[in-house]
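Re: beginner question about structure tokens

> Can someone show what the tokenized structure looks like for a real chain? I only ever see the sequence side.

Sure, here's an example I had lying around. Input first:
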Amino acid sequence: MSLVTIEGHTILPRALIADSVVLDVGANLGNFSFLMAKRFGCVCHAIEANPAVFTRIRAHPRIQTHQLAIAGRSGHMVLRIHEDHECSSIAPISGESYIGEVEVPAVTLEEFAAAQNLSDIDIVKMDIEGSEVEVLDSCSDEFLGRCGQLSLELHDFTGQLSPQVVTRLLTRLESLGFVVIKMARKSHIDTLAINRRRCSISTIEYLYLRYGIRNWHGLKRMVGRWLGAPPPPNARPSSDRL
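And the corresponding structure tokens:
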């Protein structure tokens, strides 16, 4: 069973077909959406709240763009603009360098899917700077059950999410039938949850995904460092340290 990493987010490509629906939540410049559309033929919704970044998302016939925040509740939120625009957040970190703020419209993930008439969603990629658990907490079990994969950057490595909160979320996902795979050694910066009700996984594949794959990827990184091999495309150089 082969997993691939796209822009720092691990996915199971075997479960994708042409026209698979991808929600790119926290799209930034839209690179994840662009690569998913180009490589797999997915129909992508690139959702980005920061207006300065949103205008730079490159056009593609299979990418729809949406300038708004996905949050735990709908309404309007204050987005704190970081000097590194990729780190702008509605859940700012104390002591970080923010250079301004802007009010942005916000909806829940479930409300967004309903507004777009999306029933089954193949991948939800989420990188929203500390609001991931709040967003998923707002989703019903029924809605999450219609999602094939959740590729999450959970911000426990920044201190925005506590280990207890992350554990509670992942326990819920497992209770709903997801296989949760933590790709990084120390944090949940790259976490994949695969819905076994949407993707058939054998017992052997389950054991490999649940217990073996992270060690295998860690071994490959170690061997690559020993041999002086370059990191794989789209890999995060620091992921094995987080």
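Each token stands for a local structural state, so reading them left to right follows the chain. The first helix runs from residue 31 to 40.
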